[in-house]
Amino acid sequence: MIDRINLSFLIDRLVPDPGQCRQGAAAQRKAHPDASPLQLAARMVHSAKLRAAAAGAATGAASSPFTMIPAALADMAAVLRIEGALVGEIGALLDPDSLDDPHALKTDVISVIFPAAASQALRQVGIRAGERLSHAAMRKYATEDLVRNLSRFATRYLGRQLTREAVVAKAIPLVGMGIGAGWNWLEVKAIGRRAIHYYSKAPIGPALLPNLSPPASPE
Prior knowledge:
- By secondary structure, the protein is mainly α.
- Helices cover 70% and strands 0% of the residues.
- It is built from nine helices and no strands.
- The protein has helices at residues 8-12, 18-31, 37-62, 68-94, 102-113, 115-124, 135-140, 144-169, 173-199.
- The chain is globular.
- The N and C termini lie far apart (50 Å).
C-alpha cells in the first residue's frame, strides 16, 4: 500500500513562505535582543524539537494497526512543515538574502532536510562525489534539473521513512508515542544543526556539526 502512495505533494508543501520566515526571525530578535544569531537559532531549534515531539506522540497515541499508515503520514506531514519552517527561519536569521529567490530557497530547504538526496542529485548532474554538500555548492548548481532530481530523491526517502514509521512507531499506540516523539526530536535536532552550518556557509556533515545546547529556561 505504501508503494502506491504519491508523496510528492509533501515535498511541494515543504518549502515555507519567505515572509513568515522573516517574521519568525524578527520575533526571535525582538524577544531576545541581547542574544547572538547563533543563540537565537538554537532557541528556534529547541522550540521546533518540542513541537515535533508533540506531533509524534499525538499520532502515536491515536494510531492502531488499522490506522498506522494514515497516522504515520499525518505525523510526517506535520513534522515536515515544522522542519521546513525551521530551515527557512534559520536562513532568515543567518543569511536573510537567501530567501529572496523562491527557487533557490526550495533547493536550500530540501538539501538541509535531505542531504543524502542532495548528494545524489549533485551526482546526477555530473558533480564529482567528493565535493562537499554546502550552501555554495547547491547555489552554484541550482538548475531546474538539479531541483527536479532533488525532489525525486527526497520523495524516495520519504517512502522509506513512511514505511519505518508505520511499521515500528505506529503499530502499537503506547510504544508508538515514545518512539514517534523520540524520533522526531532527534531528527529535528539534526536538521537544525545542519541548517545552522549550511547558512553559516560551511559544508554540512556529521563530523562538522556545531555542538548546540538547548537554551536555558527563563528564571
